[in-house]
Amino acid sequence: MKTLKQTFFTLSISAIGSTFLTIPAKAIDFNFSFNNELNGGGAVTGIIRGLDEGTGAASSVEVLTNTTGLGIGEYVGSPLTNSWTVLGEEIIAFDFLSAGVLNTSPAVTDALIFFDSTELSGASFRAGIAPSPGPFVTGSGFVSTEDINLTFTAISTTPISTDVPEPSSILGFGMLTTFAFGKAFKRK
Fold this sequence. Notes:
This protein is of the alpha+beta class. Helix content is 24%, strand content 36%. It contains three helices and ten strands. It has helices at 2-21, 145-148, 167-187; strands at residues 26-35, 43-51, 54-56, 60-66, 73-74, 81-87, 90-98, 111-116, 126-131, 151-159. Strands 5-4-2-1-10 form a five-stranded antiparallel beta sheet, with no helix packed on it. Strands 3-6-7-8-9 form a five-stranded antiparallel beta sheet, with no helix packed on it. Helix 1 (2-21) packs antiparallel against helix 3 (167-187).
């Protein structure tokens, strides 16, 4: 009976420990705004959803407003590139291109959008919207980083999933369970 109590005690402790060690992943959403100086002008705002610390893909990039009216809507679906690096809840590097003609409805099909953090023609942290199909400009010696004025603002941190433990907690739980059963069978 004592062995059975110890087994249940060990299992209870390992289950509680696994619960406390489980850290849900967090998704960070960002508002963005920029001046579309590289492709005809206009002030653009939108939201990037589903980023997390480190480098990964956004789950959604959406243009909410554009003073020229071009390209409003969702762009993630089949982007050509979709890489964002977040450090300390700040976007520090990015490469995103979604060519509208390659999208499928309901994603935007008449415009393309790009974000690029590398320097080109004297500007870094570039972004733009252009008609698709059609030519688009990603850099110009006449347009500076300040002209584009691309900004990102973190707006929320939400749990991606709170009911799925991380693999290390599952592994720990399994090891403790094996240890508890092994100890119980050894004593018998």
